[in-house]
Amino acid sequence: xxxxxxLTISCPDKTGIVAAVSNFIAEQGGNLIEANYHTEQDSQWFxxxxxxxxSASSFQADDFQQQFSSLAEQFEMLWQLIxxxxxxxxxxxxxxxxxxxxxxxHRWHSGDLAxxxxxxxxxxxxxxxxxxxxxVPFHHIPVTQGTKQQANLAIAKLLTGYQTNTVVLxxxxxxIPASLCDAYSGRMINIxxxxxxxxxxxxxYERAYQRGVKLIGATCHYxxxxxxxxxxxxxxxxxxxxxxxxxxxLKNGKDVERVALARGLQYHLEDRVMVHGRRTIxxx
Amino acid sequence: xxxxxxLTISCPDKTGIVAAVSNFIAEQGGNLIEANYHTEQDSQWFxxxxxxxxSASSFQADDFQQQFSSLAEQFEMLWQLIxxxxxxxxxxxxxxxxxxxxxxxHRWHSGDLAxxxxxxxxxxxxxxxxxxxxxVPFHHIPVTQGTKQQANLAIAKLLTGYQTNTVVLxxxxxxIPASLCDAYSGRMINIxxxxxxxxxxxxxYERAYQRGVKLIGATCHYxxxxxxxxxxxxxxxxxxxxxxxxxxxLKNGKDVERVALARGLQYHLEDRVMVHGRRTIxxx
Amino acid sequence: xxxxxxLTISCPDKTGIVAAVSNFIAEQGGNLIEANYHTEQDSQWFxxxxxxxxSASSFQADDFQQQFSSLAEQFEMLWQLIxxxxxxxxxxxxxxxxxxxxxxxHRWHSGDLAxxxxxxxxxxxxxxxxxxxxxVPFHHIPVTQGTKQQANLAIAKLLTGYQTNTVVLxxxxxxIPASLCDAYSGRMINIxxxxxxxxxxxxxYERAYQRGVKLIGATCHYxxxxxxxxxxxxxxxxxxxxxxxxxxxLKNGKDVERVALARGLQYHLEDRVMVHGRRTIxxx
Amino acid sequence: xxxxxxLTISCPDKTGIVAAVSNFIAEQGGNLIEANYHTEQDSQWFxxxxxxxxSASSFQADDFQQQFSSLAEQFEMLWQLIxxxxxxxxxxxxxxxxxxxxxxxHRWHSGDLAxxxxxxxxxxxxxxxxxxxxxVPFHHIPVTQGTKQQANLAIAKLLTGYQTNTVVLxxxxxxIPASLCDAYSGRMINIxxxxxxxxxxxxxYERAYQRGVKLIGATCHYxxxxxxxxxxxxxxxxxxxxxxxxxxxLKNGKDVERVALARGLQYHLEDRVMVHGRRTIxxx
Lengths: 284, 284, 284, 284
Hints:
Alpha-Beta Plaits
């Protein structure tokens, strides 16, 4: 297997970026496996993702980075070179609902997830056995009114300890403090059980039922300190009718949550998501 | 063609309603072509729709109604017997967007709509020629700051004059006064160009773009004096991506608006929609 | 909890069936929790499903059945009275793909499945540990060219031993002999990984890729001796593009398979599916 | 408005194509408004679409083409430079169903179609008035058993006369001769009223009903001499249930046909569709 790298770039749009980047990659002996780019007309901002294999055994990522820097400077690029051989450590935060946890663990176990699940953290003990069956360490950190701050510190410490790349809130029902949101900005993913911006906050299925909507949905988004307001990565919906009770909605909603979270997480792990203000560019 | 009637019923749930109604219909020589009912568990409320053909040439709707009254009283029913041979007069209110108007007129012209389009009213002259091609009277009632009240009175008068059964706001961009909303309660249908309750109010596509949602939608609902808050009849969505500009969203949204309005309107015209608080029961 | 029963009926359509059945249920002290019926216009055939709670502690199912028989005879009904307290035993047949198995076991374990998974049978040992984690007996019955008949006998014996109500082929890649298909007619469910009737038979994703379709799907259907031709219970699709390789299709297809199977199986276990020739009536 | 061009390319994949093309465009003073490319891994084939604005008033398409030729030769490219200011002439062939015709004419009239409808040809007179309202010439060319060949010659002559770029079979119920298919290869688009490859040929809704499928669909594809086997551009589906009669399916299907045709046609007119064997690459 040849070393496979991803080069992601965002910068102000300008004539000649694609040519310059493609030239550079070719000169370094890189072969484009996949390449996507997008220019947002409104902001005149440019986004690019390249998947590159290097045939030369002599290839040195450090050299590439050093030499690319001057090009990057010229175009005012935000950029990253990612070695796909370095696994991304994922920590899952859960409460008592098992459907998203079980789904992600199964995808990981089947080799369908582009990352490594290294730990599960929960404020309840309920899902301990699922994690253990997959041989994933499970940490029970109870959260009560008085111990909130302490609990969040413990979580932060665990995340650091596990060299966590990506945090997934797989129906974790607690508020994340702003400090943690910031520390994992663009790397902490939540699944909200409604089609945002509809039904921000608590009890979305109950409120969807009361409002009499004809479709219910789920939203996978990056977490910011502003609850349910982070950039959306993926959404999906399913049709409901008057025949569905609140409980039926909750049950049917689980399938949508699972799929929206799994898709959004996969885009993220494959470095396809670029955040631009409150919008995301998905370079698939 | 045998006379075809619809009997719609809603009442508190009780043992024996279906039996009593079915018995009554059978005794009157009625044959059930289609029958649907639903009990809402929360409120213990019962909804029923029967499509009945009467073979006896001697059938008299008046007699049926008189005799059914005592049964209806016993079960505290809200009910209606509808002769399907009486066409439902539809008046369309539009502004400058043609897509919904053209779609409904074409469905009507093709014989696919369960009602009669009798007039088009608009605050602009733009869509006059489409209406005229279908030989539908077109009324231009301009609305300016100073003439609003006058305009609404003129509209009300036209609606009365046309013996209007159903009013359709096919992207009519003006506020409807509470008095008109009340007069046509449960018979005035709006198409809102967002997936409600997301993006209530003006410029939903612009706001959907800014929020970075991954699906855009449309909502067909009954009009109440509370803007965009009426009972939802039908909704639909279509996937969008970062590649769609605001203009693309607007263009793609048209297809969703057309279909959601057409489906919701058809349910209404076939007497399939029963309003229960803010929810609708669609007995299809 | 009051005893809850389901009464399912199919018979030639005739005036007065609903009245007669509803009357009978009311007379027996039954309270309709949910009731659905449908008349197929083409064949003039009538289908009905009633969910009934009986308040009288003295209620005897045997008496009900005996007394209902004469009514049933009069209308030439095929009918069944099902006690919902009697769990339905489900046996899953699998090969090496885990996604459908893991999904059903998780739903069952979460209390979301209207039946009891009592055993897993497989021609491979691969999925043994998943079954065992859920404390479900796992039977490895290898199938080779020479042992096919013997294996099928062993399967038949196990199914009998487990007093199996419903057999689920959760991506079991072997042909089921006609004798087994007949023995479990209307109770053996398969998930086919294509949108039937497209891509009947082997390698549907490969063929979907070659044909360049823009949506791929999955079909949940009853098994008959005629491969992939049994009555369809549920189908679903997901959009694909030229960007998806065959492997991507296979991976994305898993999500559709899971959901189509889960929905179809649930309809079946709730006695909502009535087979009429090659068509199914889903009384939800 | 600056002149806007599209450059579409397909060729064997090779390192450096993107760099070479981007360099060339930049050297010619071109600014990339939108660019997409795709490499098909199976065949190692490369596809590219560039939307370019040229700021220099001195820009000459001829010069560009001449100079690009040597680059194209080097990479064995199939390529095209398209001036977006040259309108694409569209001729619609229809029979008696109006829904697709009315939809396309309305989109064109609203300025939402990237081409010019220049004529409607039909084997019936039914839809003459719709065409005329839009001031589009209507040609009635009846087709009988004896006059088939003559009719097809007349059609071919009209297509030539109108300098037709794209032919749309908007529910034209006649077989197109191989000679015409070849003459408009990659430029003749059909809408088939099923989710291909399901229900190839006649009466797809009837057969979908008989097979008891749970979703019906429509397929927009290029026409080849092999009936319903041409490369698929776009497909869509809509859910149906046992409650839909054959007539309901036909009615609901119309909405899917309209949308699938409109989307596929728009992709084609915007030069986003690249045919590769039986597959299409949609560079959106």
